């Protein structure tokens, strides 16, 4: 058996990180170069950590082209906490329903948390069709009076991704970009609030980035606990209570890598398109041996979900892939099958290795 | 200038970790031995991570001698989130006030979060006296009808620690042990709920341990968001949404170290008592040059807060200590002065180095 390799880790997340980031992180466990102490033992009230937060924020601002009307926050609790914080902040006590799109497993998880806080209208649901496609514009009738629209740009489980921005520009648009944040330019200015946990494209599990327009924070409930109030975190520069210092430091290293080694989001998107084209090409050229789950127009550049002709072949594929050193290819427990997650840190060479394995496996059947 | 050393890091937290834990953590950044992948890229739904959580729980159970009527949870959000989760769970909608002790900076932070949820009675406050001592038993009149008593076992900022367990055994006793958890045996069975963030004695910032009796979770509000409901986390074995995998892995390594290298909590407490005795001895034998902040009976074994005769001498002390490779000795921003935090990972040798520096500094003045 070949040992699994970080470079060939197709996990849905927590997933692969760039090799250079892992090397710098390894060094920092013993000594952060500019401090001389383990990153695990530096006070969150140190000048060093304030500079880390400021640089992460500046890097994200530069990568997304954000204006001064947006705040960049680094929070705990993952996307799940955002499922609640968004409606706590913007829906509690409202009479008008918020618009939600139900396009897969994760947008479905957001719905009950929103309904706990106020009225919700599901504008479109793909549930009856098994979440195999996204809605066309002609199927989407948004309310002009909704407090906000919430949707997920990339459904990690099913492998569906919006390649356009749905919604009305006169209604606050809120997007969970957990699984494609910083994988491509995203016209950030058109969103009132974006959130993304780190563990797909930008770091380890334990920190969540929130980009929020200042105007969204003008009229929020006054009685929220401090840690659930965006304004607390704005005022404290993401240092209200002890932040996850280590996870934030790794996000810093990834944003530096994105800028200095990759060359920004256009360059990252070009690489991600090439990787996805190669892998979907392998599905499409397999005479039906590898079967993509989703409509071609809505295919995700991040998560490529597919099946083989039988569940037994799925099982054999995963076992042989593992023995070949390719890891993390099992589909999400909700739907099974195969899922190759090809986040930013997965290289074109890694996808070539996977595609080579797929050709070989198919030939042997 | 001597480079700072992880072994001489007296930071109030995030603080020092044992050298052997740092070495294993460094290895795991590239490859967890039994998996072959970076700890940052292993799925939280893997068998490996389920085993990590199970072993952390088992180790904490063994160290504390917990019975089967307690749950051990690993959550996000720090002690601050627990300041809210406790009263959300046990005080919301109640007519009877919960009893709170106000013994320092951090117990003061818990009060407004509790008052947001229900009635609070401050049984005793040391605020008027500048938090220089803890209450005697004759000053404490607890209510037999309180939903619970909340207190903090060790006030990190002021350096005050309870060396007994206050409260009535017939009222649920809830304790924030963030800064002395697993530093000594604690009669865990006498607490209905214990919480402790990791970044003092047991790991990096980003994960919080909660030990809660099952009977406390029988009649909780039904409308809490999932991530704020202890029962969600009990049912999901601390894997409701993506947990901070890395931080939990480091906690695993620390609990292994506590058992295998230190030899359990009695042995740890003996080491911690020896360290504190050495350092307080240096204060007491300095003819008033080093002035402890707190009453002798309530001195913390974890945080030793003191002042020199003038603020200028405080400043010089910190500067020269830094140049001597001793770091993290600045007092909390709320009160200034000097604070030597001597958590589990700080060795007796490190305290000897500090005491030697203190003698030398004093002699030169």
Query: Which fold does the CATH topology of the largest domain in chain A refer to?
Result: Aspartate Aminotransferase, domain 2
Indicate the mean pLDDT of chain A.
Answer: 97
- The CATH homologous superfamily of the largest domain in chain A is called Type I PLP-dependent aspartate aminotransferase-like (Major domain)
- Compressed to H and E, one letter per element, the order of chain A equals HHEHEHEEEEEEEHHHEEHEH
Oligomer, anyone?
Answer: homodimer
Strand content of chain A: 5-15%
Helix content class of chain A: 25-40%
Strand order of the largest sheet of chain A: 1-9-8-7-4-2-3
Largest inter-chain interface? A-B, 62 and 62 residues
How many domains make up the 3D coordinates of chain A?
2
In terms of per-residue confidence, which ranges of chain A show pLDDT below 50 for 5 or more consecutive residues? Answer: none
Total helices of chain A: the number is 9
Give the end-to-end Cα distance of chain A, rounded to a whole number of Å. 21 Å
**Class of the largest domain in chain A in CATH?**
Alpha Beta
- Classification by helices and strands of chain A: alpha/beta
